[in-house]
Amino acid sequence: MPSEPPLTHDTAQLGTPSTGVTAMRPIPRQREHVESNPTGRRLAVLTLTALGVVYGDIGTSPLYAFRECFKPEYGLTPSAENVYGVLSLIVWALMLVVSLKYIVFVMRADNRGEGGILAMLALIIGRDTTRKHRRFFLIVLGLFGAALLYGDGVITPAISVLGAMEGLMIVSPNFESVIIPVSIVVLFGLFFMQKFGTAKVGAFFGPLMLIWFSVIAATGLHEVMRSPEILAAVNPMYAITFLMHKGWAAFVLLGAVVLAVTGAEALYADMGHFGKKPIRLAWFWFVFPCLLLNYFGQGALVMRVPSAVENPFYLLAPRAMLYPLIAIATVAAIIASQALISGAFSLTQQCIQLGYSPRMTIVHTSKQEAGQIYIPEINNALMVSCVLVVLGFKNSSALGAAYGIAVTGTMAITTLLFLVVAAARWNWPLWQAVSLTVAFLAMDLAFLGSNALKIGHGGWVPLVIAMTLFLLMTTWKRGRAILRERLQEITMPLDSFLKSVATGNIPRVPGTAVFMTSESGGAPVVLLHHLKHNKVLHKQVILLSIVTEEVPEVNNDERVEFAMLDAGFVRAVARYGFMESPDVNEVMELLRRQGVKTRTLDTSYYLGRELLIPRDIAWKKGGLTMNIWRKRLFTVMSKNARSAAEFFKLPANRVVELGTQIEF
Questions:
Q1: What is the pTM of this model?
Q2: DSSP one-letter string for 150-212
Q3: For residue range 361-381, what is the model confidence (pLDDT) as tens digits?
Q4: CATH 1.20.58.220: does it fit domain 47-348+394-477?
């Protein structure tokens, strides 16, 4: 049976069942990493590239964030008090949530350079093996946060493209009827292009976003120069006074203010692609100032022309520049969407490697960048979901409520996981870790609570997506654990098997047989079935396990370990990180370099294919089980999983699959 690697580090060490066992020998494998402290030209290139990938989401927030704060349901008029209060809230949300929380603190929680909620989860539980209840709670938090990110991946393309297309209504109200069809066409084109990968167009993302941020800064600066007094909104007292005077209305308004910080999680998730330094440099020296200028410009315009509150972003531009601005905004929206779609692909790869998702088709679209991947199943699901969301909500304002829930839910979960990292991994004094977490969590929960009021108005969409995906992920993980337990019951200890082979009169034929197995301590079930039915063994038998570690990439000297056993058997374990894709061809080549003699044309690969029969029983007292409906769901997921032969990159004409009927 091919490996379905567990999230916990519970793989057994290679055994020494009998004499003739040699010491395990690590095989080096070179991998390139983003340097931790780039300088000069390299720093400039990474910073420009990060500008295009990391900041697309937050960079398109000015399209709708300030406008949403003055929607009729909030009851705010564009008075001086309200404009200054809203602007101050947006400015300090950017400062505290993005600059302080994510840029300064959360980005320090890297898992060997990788970021993101699953990378943080793996960083935490990799050392936390004693407290089962806390471990379970953390895993649930991390998985639900990851599931919410998928909801973000559905809503971001829809709201970004709709927000850009709505600029057509400023040109002429007659364009209203074409906004949805054009948005759907743009989305179809966006998802269709995913199969070609971002390798060829990625170099253009940075320069295009450089143009975008320059344009929004210039339009905002023009208005600020006409009314420089608007800069006084940077004073936090305006935000505090607004919150105190407006009370409940101000709390409800936070659900719109949070739209200004959407994309903050991308700073952390994409850290492994660019490193901390370029991301921080781009934010503090370019992105943040450009955003502030545009928001201040929108505020100044609304103060001067109150009716501009209907769409202050596009009304900042001269009428002759509207069409070019709409075009640039559409490109920026596509780039923002691209970042979230690519993030969904990476997140799915992590889920597969960590054992929370069935195998899927992972296509590497770049020979140079390992992180550039394409997963057709996820791409199609996101495309259909985005189109349905556009058809259901029809405009970016209606989508704002759904967007906020996904963003704020993930932000709150990241804060809770950060507390564990600070206390358990960094050994901060508990009072320091708790104090900082309480401060961050107060902001997160305020934003989340405000958005929770909108659950009935669209906020339910990301919650339904998240709960559905959480159910699927936990069902797959639990089902694999039950299946592994059942297989262990019928697995023969390797010691006993080798002794029976040594003492028996089993015919041996030339060549090498590689048996894929997820159990490193016993004889694979597929091997027992092969011997039972064919009554013959190859002269050399390799028992190969693929194990996923709780790190993004495995160190060079830990990639492959093997032991020479009696009777021509070799026990091998190949270790991969959760950001890597297993490749059995690569493993076999590494083994050959270390003296395990095999010939490609004389090697056959044996896989087990289980026929699952769900039963509403537990097999033994204390044994793992789950509800019958979840067992049936697991069976459907298993049937639709990608072929193990394709996933592990086995030679198509050298694979033999043997079926096993398993009741569970």
A1: 0.81
A2: HHHHHHHHHHHHHHHHTTHHHH-GGGHHHHHHHHHHHHHHHHHGGGG-STTTHHHHHHHHHHH
A3: 888 776 555 556 788 999 999
A4: no
